[in-house]
Design goal:
The chain is of the alpha+beta class and 482 residues long. It has two domains: 196 residues, no CATH class; 191 residues, no CATH class. The chain contains 15 helices and 13 strands. It has a six-stranded mixed beta barrel, surrounded by four helices. Strands 2-12-1-13 form a four-stranded antiparallel beta sheet. Strand 3 and strand 4 form a beta hairpin. The protein is elongated, with a radius of gyration of 36 Å.
Length: 482
């Protein structure tokens, strides 16, 4: 039997029992729709998580610290440097890291506990420096106000929880001034100053002109007593702590925390440009440790963030940094676990979604078995005219495949509509909660093609029994039927 003749017979048979075949096809469509809707939810959530994480820059970042610091964070990492003290993470190391291939940016994690004053009221807080590239991380999307106007601007962005401590009307803070009070780290000479006498005053205040460290700022200095300088000098130069103050303009209020720091150290609540934060030379947590270890004469960093020009280069850059004697951490291992979780999630959704399609396959079996009873005489005529058993089987397979294909196409459309409705309802709820909208479902081409192919496959499997039963009919008995 020719393919053309077989197709014409299949189409005619499907038209003759339009209602029954339509209901069977609709059952397949419902099964495919449930499958597509569930899998589109899993795919959409995975794409949403990947997009947010990729945009945050976490996938193309390597966090660098010293071997000692890494062990302090509760992690065990073998030392790759030569025997002796671990290499210090200072400006020389920062320059070496910046010269590595595929590295686009290297910046320190600058954050310090201090006090700020708003309209004369003091607030204890944590200040963190944010690089200019932080604007592209997505953390500042939907913020009140705007991002920093420049890398050297004396501006600040407040975390919303801290802003609410100041005033419930957080939007009124934008454009106001905030006074930052901090402790500046000043390196002392290796030898004590011979001109200093024990009878000199314990402290002396001097006022520096505004703009010494940035426009519109004032700085107040208190020098440490000479005895303190001598003690610091005995530790290899040491450093003095000088109180300072700086006036900042509040330009925005942000919901999220855009600078979590290495190892989750102290969440920042006031954010300033990283260049400004570095110029302050504020005392940080690692300064006392360096002084006790005799390295106070040269400032070091607690950690550095190394940006790479693509996630595929992270592993090579991380290996090169380890060879330099530093400890590293990246989110590559964490993303493997995330992908594993989503893979298991997708499999479970696919199993539950396929149950409806399996149930609909029973409808195909029932429809084709009923078709055998209705068309026994037709099958007997075809066999009497020379049709082989294989031709009869192919005819029923074509009919089953046609119902599966049409049901698959309709199911993909229905599944996409269900996903759109789910996204619309979710976004309406999020808008009521004053949250940004998201897209939680996605139907890529491979999911649509796979769902249609799966529907055809299930339909063909469902048609095996009716096709085999039709092919085994005795033509004489089939002609005598009725």
């Amino acid at each position: 039997m020719k393919v053309r003749d077989m197709t014409e017979l299949a189409v005619r048979n499907l038209r003759e029992s339009m209602l029954r075949n339509s209901l069977t096809t609709l059952g397949v469509a419902v099964g495919v729709a449930s499958l597509v809707a569930m899998l589109s939810l899993g795919v959409g959530l995975q794409e949403l998580a990947s997009k947010r994480l990729s945009r945050s820059g976490l996938f193309d970042a390597v966090f660098v610290t010293t071997q000692g610091n890494f062990r302090e964070f509760g992690r065990s990492r073998p030392r790759t440097a030569a025997a002796g003290d671990p290499r210090v993470l200072d400006d020389d190391a920062r320059r070496d890291l910046a010269h590595l291939p595929s590295v686009t940016e290297v910046y320190p994690d600058v954050r310090f506990a201090t006090e700020v004053r708003y309209q004369g009221t003091p607030y204890a807080t944590m200040v963190a420096g944010v690089p200019a590239s932080g604007l592209a991380s997505g953390a500042f999307d939907g913020m009140q106000g705007k991002f920093f106007s420049s890398a050297d601007a004396d501006e600040a962005i407040l975390q919303i929880e801290f802003a609410r401590e100041i005033t419930p009307q957080t939007e009124t803070l934008v454009g106001k001034d905030l006074e930052l009070r901090y402790a500046e780290r000043q390196t002392l000479p290796a030898e004590p100053d011979s001109s200093a006498s024990p009878g000199s005053p314990a402290s002396k205040k001097t006022e520096k002109p505004a703009g010494a460290h940035g426009s519109g700022s004032t700085h107040t200095e208190e020098q440490a007593p000479a005895s303190q300088g001598d003690d610091a000098s005995s530790l290899g130069g040491g450093f003095s702590i000088v109180p300072r103050q700086k006036l900042l303009r509040i330009v925005g209020v942000v919901d999220s925390e855009p600078a979590a720091g290495f190892g989750g150290i102290a969440r920042g609540r006031v954010f300033i440009p990283l260049h400004v934060a570095e110029s302050l030379r504020a005392t940080q947590a690692n300064d006392l440790r360096d002084a006790l270890r005799g390295r106070a004469g040269k400032p070091s960093y607690l950690s550095l963030t190394v940006r790479v020009d693509g996630p595929s280069k992270v592993k090579d850059v991380e290996a090169a940094i380890k060879q330099m004697g530093f400890a590293t951490f990246s989110l590559l291992d964490a993303t493997k676990n995330i992908r594993l979780v989503f893979a298991v999630f997708d499999v479970l959704l696919g199993i539950f979604g396929s149950l409806a399609l399996v149930v609909s396959s029973l409808g195909i079996i029932n429809t084709l078995v009923m078709a055998i009873l209705d068309r026994r005489r037709e099958i007997g005529v075809l066999k009497a005219l020379g049709a082989a058993d294989g031709d009869i089987q192919k005819l029923f397979f074509v009919e089953a495949g046609a119902m599966g294909f049409l049901g698959g196409v309709l199911g993909v459309v229905f599944g996409w509509l269900i996903g759109r409705a789910l996204t619309l309802a979710l976004n309406i709820y999020l808008r009521k909660q004053e949250l940004p909208g998201i897209d939680v479902t996605s139907v890529p081409w491979w999911l649509a093609a796979g769902a249609i192919g799966f529907a055809v496959l299930v339909s063909l499997i469902a048609g095996m029994y009716p096709a085999s039963r039709a092919a085994k009919l005795n033509p004489v008995e089939a002609l005598r039927y009725e």
